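INFO worker-7 received task bundle
INFO bundle size: 2
INFO processing item 0
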Amino acid sequence: MATLTTPTTTAESPRPTPRKARHGGLRGHESKWGLLFVAPALLGLIVFLVVPIVLAVYVSMLKWNGQSSPFSGGGEFIGLDNYKSLLTEDQLTRQDFALSMRNTFYFVLGVVPLQTALALFLAVIVNQRFLKGRSFFRTAFYFPSITSSIAISLVFIFLFQNSGAVNGVLSLVGINGPNWFADSRGLFHILLGLVGVDSSPGWADTQVFSLPLWQWIAGPSVAMTAIMMLVIWTTAGTFMLMFLAGLQNISEDVEEAAILDGAGPWQRFRYVTVPMLKPTLFLVLTLGLIGTWQVFDKIYVMSGGNPAKTTLTPAFLSYRVGFIDGRFGVAAAMAFCLFLLIVVLTLGQRFLLRDKDA
């Protein structure tokens, strides 16, 4: 008779501990050590960047003259009145702010495209293999960017004064050079005066942001044009290095493939080089846009906002209203209006330069 046998149960062999479980504690320690290493930098950003920004927002809502602490009753909290006075109330501060925005608009419009084009041109030149002494030319083109802006500004003042070198060269060809830093007319008004248009037509008397339309279309003054030339000369070298790094990252295989396809030098530059430089181009344009809207030191040294406030910029106006007039709340409001404008323009620029195929 068959007997039933009970199956014997054997103890299961222990499963190997997953690798992640055995070493799971290391990742926690790594994150802690990482936070410890970046803590000094984060602390510096919080103390010297985040906290001042928060305090500036608070000051922009005060009526404060800077004579005492804004936290101990030294300033009167007025909410958004400083912003309203800048944007809605028809008074001198708003007019000056509008003038500074107009001046800086022409400044940005003239400087950013020219400095970008010049930087790309110089980068293409010094990237050529057949060019001898490339290191010398790179240094020579970059040298103005590392020179003191105050020293260069003083040199430009001497160049453009009445007895300066610029007027001396113009006199050799029979042109009596102007007093560059005393002529308050805009370049467009000067050109219109050559064809007999010396006064504002009726349609140009319309007030836009506390300024007649005729003033908005005046163009940059002669003094502002000289400052624009200075900025283009001193910033092109830095952006040249950025474009040069981008050019050197382009694979030679791409260029060779374009040559095999029969593309000429201009076609290779337009359809191969420039599209592959789009990230660098976006960086250069963004830095140029931010830097030109925040221009201060050249204005402070060369013109002080003169003549007739045609070189006034928002950054310099904010300094003057705050530290000279003692209206720190209005000055902080100007700074944040400028900040918001830069953010909007940067986002718009990013939208225009986006990769449409992505």
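INFO item 0 finished
INFO processing item 1
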Amino acid sequence: MLELVDLSLTLPKETYRTRLPQLQGRLLDLQRAFWREKLSAIVVLEGWDASGIGGSIRRLTARLEPRGYRIRWTHRPRTYETQMPWLWRFWLRIPAFGKIAIFDRSWYGDVILRRVEGEIDRVTHLEQCREINAFERTLADDRYEVVKFFLHISEEEQEQRFQELQADPAKSWMLEEEHWARHESYGQFHDALEETLEHTESAWAPWTVLAATDRYWTRIRIFERLIDRLERRLEAEGRELPPEEEAS
């Protein structure tokens, strides 16, 4: 799946600056429509370190109604969480009806990292992929719209971004030894990602894999895909779409 991504895709800065506020306005209209209709969405943003997940989330939420969404950051399980079924801590973060949850990394990061680090073998990894499919199917059956993105960059691009972060005194704190360690294992992560993406692709929660070399192109495509999915959900529920002209 990753091999099919054209990493050279770009978008002119002028086009980005014109399109972004339009798409932000449209997303706000759809958020309000979901609130009125008591529909919910779960937006999963996965990707390589330094692929631009944080910047994409900031643009997504810049004009949203703060009471209607939550950003969920994923951490390694705490001690008490390891005593529970592994998806338990994610069930606790599912949004209420009418709201949107944006996951900055998710249940996928946990599975992939443990596979690469050797904490689980391939059999367990595939079993957890099946559990994820069941988890997402349950959410979809309960009228949650599950929208999943993976932001893809090359090994060379990641190294360049790491070096730029390290050289910037205002941003160097963002880069830790574990980031470099994961970079050294890029090939292993690539293989684990390919297998995970393949086994968690589904009709109810399909993946959108995006080239993230050019941030302008990536952010606009995230907006377009998310807006399309939210509009389709409203139509599937027999609800009227907010007029396009309301976007501002």
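INFO item 1 finished
INFO post-check item 1: The first strand starts at residue 40 and ends at 47.
INFO post-check item 1: The chain is about 50% helix and 15% strand.
INFO worker-7 idle
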